[in-house]
Amino acid sequence: MTTDTSPPATHGLLGPAPARCLVLCLVSTAATGAGLLLPAALGRTLDLLLAQAPATRWVLGCAALVLLVALLDAAETVLGGTLDARTTAWLRRRLTGHVLAVGPRAGARFGPGDLVARLVGNAAQAGTAPTARAALCAALAGPVGAVVALGLISPWLAAVFLAGAPVLALLLRAFARDTRACVTRYQEVQGRIAQALSEAVGGHRTIRAAGTQDRETARVLRPLPELSEAGHRMWRVQGRASGQSVAVAPLLQIAVVAVAGVLLARHRVTVGEVLAASRYAVLAAGVGVLVGRLAGLARARAAAGRLDEVLAEPAVEHGGRRLPPGPGRLELRGVTALRGARAVLDGVDLVVPGGTTLAVVGRSGAGKSLLAAVAGRLADPDAGEVLLDGVPLRELTHDELRRSIGYAFERPALLGGTVEEEIGLALASPSPARVREAARTARADDFVRRLPDGYDTLVADAPRSGGESQRLGLARAFAHGGRLLILDDALSSLDTVTEARIAEALVGGGAAGTRLLVAHRTATAARADAVAWLDGGRVRAVGPHKELWRLAEYRAVFGGETEGADASDGGPS
Q1: Assuming Cys at both sites, which of 12, 228, 269, 276 could form a disulfide with 39, CB separation 3.0 to 4.6 Å?
Q2: CA 150 and chain centroid, separation
Q3: At what angle do helices 496-507 and 466-480 cross, to 10 degrees?
């Protein structure tokens, strides 16, 4: 079995460009180093000027340091911006690929809206992590270098500052801890709002029809007070840390300057060194910069944690086998599938001979769609196995699995290309002839030709009904081909005439291989070679529709339809 062995964590990585991260760290540190040299150079220049000694080279050196700091800051800004963009793009590609690899389970666990919030907002925040780390390293290098510089001027100056340093360290530690908790809470509430909004957008027609816009607006915005509280708490935490540092840092700076003054009076240091010491005291107590850097890193790490939750969801594993020659015999052995604590499918045994059509019928909630998903490995059973021509689906390669099984759904996803591109979506090199033949089989060719640009019309610009969208999805499945074709309620929006003609094409060879149809109409069930009757997650019976029709409970599944009812003898397609 092949698995994705890459670590799921994102906040522990340098991202897609470790070399760029290293360069950014070096540039940031160099800028900090140049900034640390400047006070010493200014102090030396002042001493020379007071002594009326030649100081031209030192003045030029100070100017060069100022220019160097400016250039390094500009380079740091450019490198940081491009690194943020690259890392964000890398995270979004990785997260998107993983969500698609996980499949429907990701949407079921997190919800589409929350996934979008993580992909858009959290990925952008997590993408700043490498830059935030580099900035924090540079921000830490400043105080450390300043303390070292104080020690070089006089050990007493460094000792005075270090006496109060533990207080600053405790403040920073508390700030980092509280900020992470606040940011995590804020991002979680954002995700809940995004999920509620996604649900409302998806059901906008129902909401308008019911006249419940105000109620839905209130539901979507219900978490806003929590979001506001989390946001205000973040500002309170940062404000408290800044206020405490403002109270402590000036005291340390004053103490350092006072000791430097005493040492100057005793001729232990020069005037220039006092100037340098005062500047180094400011740099050493630069808690405000550290607070900002820590806040940025906390936001990035909290966002990365939310991405890690998605990346920790195991992706579907695939084997290395290929299918032997065969007609497409589908077999389910003891298949049990749970949703929560409920067994939606309970020990299902089912065989679909190769080249035949099986209709799956049952009341709502009987497990028809889940059986269709398990049969094509869009979902894995919790027990049992599914085989195609004697090979368990779990053991097939990804390409072999998807090449061998075609799907059509109740609501096909039309992704925005042209009509021709959408029909040939699953084909490596779709030919126009194959696309048009599939469209004719799905009874879509006539309405496609009436579109402004025919098959070259963008799907987004193609006005169509729900039934016409289903026909495009069916055409895509027919163009795909394969040994097994699964239609999961893919005929539900069609008129009875069109459904009857497509069903006839399926049974009559319009789609090669084995066909599994989730059916709701007697006409479709009647045309299938056999019918599997699901009831309560179990296969109640398998047989021809005419034989099952003798059972009153089976007839009740179709809600009073007469046997084989359709309108296949008249009406337009």
Answers
A1: 276
A2: 49
A3: 10
Helix then strand then coil, % of the chain, to nearest 5: 65, 10, 25
Write the pLDDT tens digit of every residue in 231-286.
888 888 777 776 766 667 777 788 888 999 999 998 899 999 999 999 888 888 77
Question: Can you give the pLDDT at residue 505?
Answer: 78
Specify the long-range contacts of residues 68-77, CB closer than 8 Å, at least 24 apart: 68/34, 69/31, 69/34, 69/35, 69/38, 72/27, 72/30, 72/31, 72/34, 73/31, 75/27, 76/24, 76/27, 76/28, 76/31
Beta strand residue intervals within 314-404, DSSP E: 330-339, 342-352, 357-361, 383-388, 391-392
Contact 293, 128 (CB under 8 A): no
State the Cα–Cα distance between residues 296 and 303, nearest whole angstrom: 11
Contacts of 117 (CB under 8 A, 6+ apart): 190, 191, 194, 195
Looking up tokens 């906008």, which residue turns up? 204
Phi and psi torsions of 544, nearest 5°: -65, 150
Least confident among 181-190, 207-216, 289-298, 351-360: 289-298
CA torsion sign for 479, 485, 491, 495 is positive
Element (H, E) at 85: helix 56-102
Contacts of 431 by beta carbon, 8 Å cutoff, 6+ apart: none
Q: How far apart are CA 352 and CA 124, in angstroms?
A: 48
Dump pLDDT digits (tens) for 10-32: 544 446 667 888 888 889 889 99
CA dist., res. 378 & res. 371, Å (int): 10
Q: pLDDT, tens digit, for every residue of 447-506?
A: 889 888 889 888 888 888 888 888 888 888 888 888 999 988 887 778 778 877 887 777
Q: Looking at this protein, which amino acid is placed at residue 262?
A: V
| pLDDT-above-70 percentage for the chain | 92
Q: Alpha-carbon distance 30 to 36, whole Å?
A: 10
Nearest to 62 by CA among 32, 38, 84: 38
pLDDT at 536: 87
How far, in Å, CA of 270 to CA of 525, rounded? 100
**Cα separation, 121 vs 560, whole angstroms:** 51
Distance CA(223)–CA(555), nearest Å, equals 48
- pLDDT over 70 at 380, yes or no: yes
Tokens of 424: 């040939």
Q: Which of 300-314, 327-341, 480-494 is least confident?
A: 480-494
CB-CB contact of 65 with 41 (8 Å): yes
pTM: 0.73
The strands making up 330-339's β-sheet, listed across from edge to edge, are: 342-352, 330-339, 383-388, 391-392
- Classify the phi-psi angles of 389: left when phi > 0, otherwise alpha if psi is within -120 to 50, otherwise beta: left
Classify the phi-psi angles of 534: left when phi > 0, otherwise alpha if psi is within -120 to 50, otherwise beta: beta
Cα distances (angstroms) measured from residue 337 to each of 127, 312, 340, 361, 374: 38, 22, 10, 18, 8
State mean pLDDT over 197-213. Answer: 80
